[in-house]
Design goal:
- The chain is of the alpha/beta class.
- The protein has helices at residues 3-13, 19-29, 44-47, 164-179, and strands at residues 33-36, 39-42, 50-54, 60-65, 77-87, 90-99, 109-115, 131-140, 143-146, 153-161.
- Strands 1, 2, 3, 4, 5, 6, 7, 8, 9 and 10 form a 10-stranded mixed beta sheet that branches.
- Strand 5 and strand 6 (90-99) form a beta hairpin.
């Protein structure tokens, strides 16, 4: 089968009126996003709409600017998230969608959001069972604030990529503190 027919078949299956696909397509038009085989990559410019942090309850949260939230709420079925370090020359927050609609099992994908180098280091000792909350946020007087006390979605969170230097450094630091 020709690649042109395969592309047409994939296009026929996707709902281009879907809020997430509209959001991503807008970034592609601005050269702030690329797509390859189910992997959605955005540039640092596009990732400025997100902020990774800890809320007042100690939960890890990915804040999403309120004007962008619609693209990330249902019908997108988010399955998991990973904090990915030292892959493709960057650190990333990766969100995995099992499908972009509840009825659509044919279009899983992952969204790769680049983050500043070193930002993920604080999560090096992430415990099993940790979850990531997705929550709307707003910029108020230059400060990012979550709008709701509860995220609209919580998904399992894992570490991927190369974390060995951080884990070794924290183990060495703990050994040094014990010896003091």
């Amino acid at each position: 089968m020709s690649s042109r027919r395969q592309t047409k078949r994939v296009q026929d299956q996707l709902d281009f009126d879907h809020p997430f696909l509209r959001w991503f397509a807008a970034h592609v038009r601005m050269n702030a996003g690329t797509f390859y085989k189910g992997e959605f990559f955005v540039t640092p410019l596009a990732s400025r709409q997100f902020a990774l942090g800890i809320d007042e309850t100690g939960r890890t949260v990915l804040g999403i600017m309120e004007h962008t939230v619609e693209a990330f709420e249902a019908p997108v079925v988010w399955e998991s998230a990973s904090l990915v370090r030292n892959v493709r020359g960057s650190d990333w927050v990766v969100l995995k969608a099992g499908a972009f609609t509840e009825a659509d099992e044919a279009s899983p994908g992952r969204l790769w959001l680049p983050v500043s180098s070193g930002l993920l280091n604080g999560w090096a000792n992430l415990e099993d069972g940790e979850r990531l909350g997705l929550a709307p946020m707003r910029r108020i007087n230059g400060t990012l604030s979550l709008l709701d006390s509860e995220p609209f979605c919580e998904i399992p969170l894992t570490l991927n990529g190369n974390w060995s230097d951080i884990i070794e450094a924290s183990a060495t630091s703990a050994d040094t503190e014990k010896g003091s």
